[in-house]
Design brief:
Elements (H helix, E strand, L loop, with lengths): L2 H25 L4 E3 L6 E3 H17 L4 E4 L3 E3 L5 E9 L1 H6 L5 E8 L2 E9 L4 E6 L4 E3 L2 E3 L11 E4 L13 H8 L4 E3 L4 H9 L5 E4 L4 H4 L2 H7 L3 E4 L7 E4 L4 H8 L1
Parallel strand pairs: 3-5, 11-12, 11-13
Antiparallel strand pairs: 1-2, 3-4, 5-6, 6-7, 7-8, 8-9, 9-10, 13-15, 14-15
Helix pairs in contact: 1-2, 5-7
Length: 254
Amino acid sequence: MDYNKTLNVLTDLMIAVGEYQVGKFKSRSFKFETKSTDIDIVTEVDQRSEQFLIDGLTKEFPEFGFLAEESGEQSIDSDYIWVIDPLDGTTNFSVGVPVFAISVALQKHGESVIGAVYIPLTDDMYTSIKGSGAYKNNKKIEVNKAMSLRESVIATGFPYDRAESTVNNVEEFSKVVTKVKGIRRLGAAAYDFCLLAEGVFAGYWEFGLKPWDYAAGLLIASEAGAVYEMLPKREHSMIVANPNIFEEFKNTLV
């Protein structure tokens, strides 16, 4: 398989979906409903964006399977599976905060080999093919060189079930906040990974993510030089950082 051609097909589709999302975001003309909790929402824009991506990718790669946020699993016995978050930052989108992303990864036997994250409002495309580095708008990017937490801006997030689960990041947030230059909570994990990859953030951690939250972004960050470790407290939880601060960050967090 030619991964470069595959990536080009993918990014063209993502840009088309992004144009649709920008129109909807600016017009504020969409409906939404709740999912797992009363603060976990889905809009019609999520659903239509996901279907557009699935339809377009199926046309080009009919033998590939899917794991998508809104529609779940399809043909996941395939060697290749698309992992899709059609609108990362749905809460932001729904209330008018201009921070959201489209995230798609192609996995082979469970490992991401292609990752793309598109930021529609800024027209920024982050991409990576495993083993080939990380790129923003076709220019190579790398993690920053911060040497300590005190000189680092760190990103994080909180799970939708934070009122019910005791592993909700509140305790960990209080440990980190006094040790760093700043903490940012964007509300779009895929974008957090990308800003880490290009050196804006020096680290990121979060509990209770889903595979589509990080399948593309973690590949991009890793290919940009970040190191990571899964956290045992909760499934799909992780700490990611530039190599210089990773141990200090981890020791502070856990």
